[in-house]
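Researcher: Please translate sequence to structure tokens.
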Amino acid sequence: MMGERMDSFIHYASLFLFAAGSFFVITGALGLLRFPDFYTRMHASGVTDTLGADLILWGMILQADGDWLLIAKLLIIMLFLMFTSPVSTHSIAHAAWVGGLNPLLGKDLKHSDIAPDRDETKSAPEAQSADGQHEGGTE
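Model: Translation complete:
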């Protein structure tokens, strides 16, 4: 009797995790369609895909039924996703920023001119101020 209750609890808990993970993944997909510019779309997909995938993986771990090798593999996949998804989202957004794509700002969502100088290829001597000193003080 107790084993049936535990199996039922694990089944419903994993069902809840699958549903919650699917909700976050679908919400992120809708964010890609609904949000107005690149940066808000990246935010929607970057946040929700990590959380959604992790919730789905937790549901799969509950369904693994004590298979420790499978649980270890799912945990490794989860760790990989937790580290790589935010980093890749940041890298793509940073590449767009360096490439000159400005975010939409304000009530009317117009492109901004908030960063006119984005040349990251400058060397250290070129990045000095006009008086020949570094930002930290004299040489």
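Researcher: Any highlights?
Model: The mean pLDDT is 81.
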